[in-house]
Design a protein that fits this description.
By secondary structure, the protein is mostly helical. The chain has one domain. It has 10 helices and no strands. Helix 4 packs parallel to helix 9. The chain is rod-shaped and about 90 Å long. The relative contact order is 0.20. The mean pLDDT is about 90.
């Protein structure tokens, strides 16, 4: 697991959010005190216009980056949810279409489909939170594939349903593969480095404004830092769609248990 995924796996999102906000508050307080200790207020006030212009450019660039990553993370989360729903729909189609085949094929394929669903819900979903595939589920899917590829259709009706079922099975395997990949793929570490460094620079730049009222200055810095921390927390929460408090559950598979 990556560092971010380990954090999501071991820590509730609320606790993580509190830690991030407290870290920003401590960083802001210490930074402001250090700057005010070594740089006279009158010097800071003289350069307020230049500081404001540079700060505007920094915040614009960082805001664009944050918005981009939030949108991408949300889109990836939704795409993973779609992959999961498509996989479940393919299983429903395979189960229903199996009625077109003769015995003993129906009595062999349907229990395997039900077993696959059961293993995915009760075993593989726990593995997905760690970004891992369940070997048992993979083996069951291979057995399903072997039954379909080894079946010899006897009528035109069976040929049509076999072709459609194999197409559905191919789609199911692809959706499963994407689901496994999505469970372990998050925002690239380089991008996280840029996000964190950008947050430090953006917050740190506010220390160099010359405001007469130190308390008001501190509160404004705290507010900016808290907003940045909450946005980063949002990115983290959607980073790994099967890990953490905000995650995709097996509801799509649970709906087909009754078949």
């Amino acid at each position: 697991m990556s560092f971010i995924q380990k954090i999501l796996f071991s820590m509730p999102l609320v606790m993580l959010g509190v830690i991030m906000i407290l870290s920003v508050v401590v960083f802001s307080a210490i930074g402001l005190l250090i700057v005010r200790r070594f740089v006279p207020l009158k010097v800071l006030k003289v350069h307020n216009d230049v500081t404001a212009a540079i700060f505007k450019a920094i915040t614009t660039a960082y805001t664009v980056l944050l918005a981009f990553v939030v949108v991408i993370s949300w889109q990836n989360f939704n795409e993973t949810e779609r992959h999961t729903a498509t996989e479940a729909n393919c299983l429903v189609s395979l189960y229903r279409n199996s009625a077109a085949f003769g015995q003993p094929f129906v009595n062999e394929i349907r229990p395997l489909i039900k077993e696959y669903v059961d293993v995915v819900i009760n075993e593989e979903w726990k593995s997905l939170s760690r970004g891992e595939e369940n070997i048992k589920a993979r083996d069951i899917l291979r057995n399903i594939w072997a039954l379909y590829t080894g079946y010899d259709p006897k009528t035109d009706k069976e040929k049509i349903f076999l072709a459609e079922s194999v197409r559905k099975l191919d789609n199911l395997r692809e959706m499963r593969r994407l689901r496994i990949i999505d469970s372990r793929t998050g925002v690239h570490p380089v991008l996280w480095f840029v996000l964190v460094v950008g947050a430090i620079i953006t917050i740190g730049f506010t220390f160099f404004f010359g405001l007469d009222n130190f308390i008001n200055h501190t509160v404004m810095v705290f507010i900016l830092g808290t907003i940045i921390a909450l946005i980063l927390l949002t990115i983290i929460s959607f980073d790994f769609p099967f890990t953490g408090t905000v995650r995709i559950g097996p509801a799509a598979f649970q709906q087909i248990i009754g078949f």
